[in-house]
Amino acid sequence: LHSDSWILDAFQRIHSEESKFFIPYDLEISNQELSYIVKRSQQWRGINGERRK
């Protein structure tokens, strides 16, 4: 009925207090975290040895 509860989610977002939401100020990540993500993505190999582009 609710299609994966999107109606309930929308209702809660409209009627909840602003303090209930966690939103980072500008979505920054640290250089260390970014380096880790890049390193892991470069090392990733699929089942047949393929790489991400």
How is the topology of this model organized?
Elements: H1 6-15, H2 31-43
Task: Please give a quick description of this structure.
The chain is built from two helices and no strands.
Give an overview in words.
The structure is a single chain. The mean pLDDT is 79. Helix content is 43%, strand content 0%. The protein has 2 helices and no strands. The protein has a domain at 23-53.
Features:
mainly alpha; 53 residues; OFCC1; 2 helices
Mean pLDDT: 79
> How many helical stretches?
2
Gap between N and C termini: 39 Å
Structural class: mainly alpha
**Biggest sheet: strands, sense, closure?**
none
- Supply Rg: 19 Å
Count of β-strands: 0
pLDDT under 50 segments (min length 5)? none
Considering DSSP H and I runs of 4 or more, what fraction of the residues is helical? Answer: 40-55%
Strand content: under 5%
Shape by Cα distribution: elongated
Question: What is the H/E order?
Answer: HH
